[in-house]
Amino acid sequence: MFGMATIEFFAIALFFIAIFGLVTSNNAIKSIVFMTILNAAVITFWIGIGAREGTLPPIMETPYHIYMIGEMSDPVPQALMITAIVIGFSVTAINIIMMNTLFRRYKTSDWKSLYKMMREETAGSGQVLSDIVFDKDDSVEEGAK
Question: How many CA atoms lie less than 13 Å away from 132 in the CB half-sphere?
Fold first, then answer.
């Protein structure tokens, strides 16, 4: 029904839509959704690369299929994508847990509000984390308002 080039084009388009959503999203929950879409796009692209039209799956039912090895699809991208699915699921689960913790503590999922509240909380405490995560220059933030 669909050619492999169509699937790969769809995966690339989905990838850039997810990147655009990550860059422009102000909500942490939307960011998690866009990261999941990004993961699905990458997996779809690599599966599309590994399976070409006219090739057989890399599963040999009988020993005489060993002579048809030139007509088999590459099993390496498929095996790597199984690992990528597990890793993507784990990253999504950790992101949801972190977002749940932040929401319970600060009662918001807006990135700007979270940034402001976390900055106010760590101001004056002398924590090393505040020096690493938050830059001391307020001129960009104040100039935008």
Answer: 3
